[in-house]
């Protein structure tokens, strides 16, 4: 009889744990496709340093897409025409290893072209289409991949916190490998580089995060991600005037317990700050311990990649191949 009671109790415990795990979010199932924003039609110019000399480009955009790139290769050598213009298809620009003959005796690499095109369009801030997880990385997800849980507030479905940018990037790489994908990050003596063409998981860029938080192409222009009423979408802390103590009770909260934004993405305002990385590390979105001013979609702080704290987590994205 005693063995039967122990057996039944064990089944109950196993079912409870299984049910709790099943109720937790999963990254694979919760990826949201974010259609990129389009360029404004027009013609834009930019320059970059090529292998032999400077590269100038004139980029023509129509229907929101690049349809022509005119390249000017400046040659300083006497006896050779100092300027040659050639129109190339956009597919060549995407081929990073391609070399394009412009005039006799000189070549330019597509890397230089890409840089010049990016410089021409940098004010337009195009965001290419990408996938973003609709929730912040949870403690269960983090511990499953990393084997540890660094968080201050403990709970399977709470966002992981107290992670640096390096911790987040390492998680992305290990998650990618566990899914048979190519890691995006390389580490070299404290420096981190990202291959944005890899098919693995990574942190969003600042532009990607902001675009997704705004609701992408479905944006209603809200102050916070999903609403102008913060209590509907955000867990936040004290107000500077101390008249409003916030709604977080000074702790993190389970993901997806507030209203999502226009894209079905949760907690992009409040709960925990979220790491972003492109040319420098930044954090976005505010947290349970900060005022509403910092929970706005427009809020952004440039910080050290070593920064950690019980208010700092992240979410992952993937490039569209």
Structure commentary:
By secondary structure, the protein is of the alpha+beta class. It folds into 2 domains: 80 residues, no CATH class; 190 residues, paralog of FGE (formylglycine-generating enzyme). The protein is 23% helix and 23% strand. It has 7 helices and 16 strands. The strands form 5 sheets. A 4-stranded antiparallel β-sheet has the order 1-8-16-11. The chain has a 4-stranded antiparallel β-sheet with strand order 2-3-4-5. The N terminus is likely disordered.
Low-pLDDT parts are 1-24, 75-106
The CATH architecture category of the largest domain equals Alpha-Beta Complex
| Number of discrete helical segments | 7
Mean pLDDT: 80
User: What is the assigned CATH homologous superfamily of the largest domain?
Assistant: paralog of FGE (formylglycine-generating enzyme)
Task: Kindly give the count of domains.
Answer: 2
The count of β-strands is: 16
Strand order of the largest sheet: 1-8-16-11
The biggest beta sheet is recorded as: 4 strands, antiparallel
Report the top-level CATH class of the largest domain. Alpha Beta
Q: What gap, in angstroms, lies between the N and C termini?
A: 60 Å
**What order do the helices and strands follow?**
HEEEEEHEEHEHHEEEHHEEEEE
Which value, in Å, is the CA radius of gyration?
24 Å
Q: Say what the CATH topology of the largest domain is.
A: paralog of FGE (formylglycine-generating enzyme)
Structural class comes to alpha+beta
The coarse silhouette is: globular
* Fraction in helix: 10-25%
Strand content: 15-25%
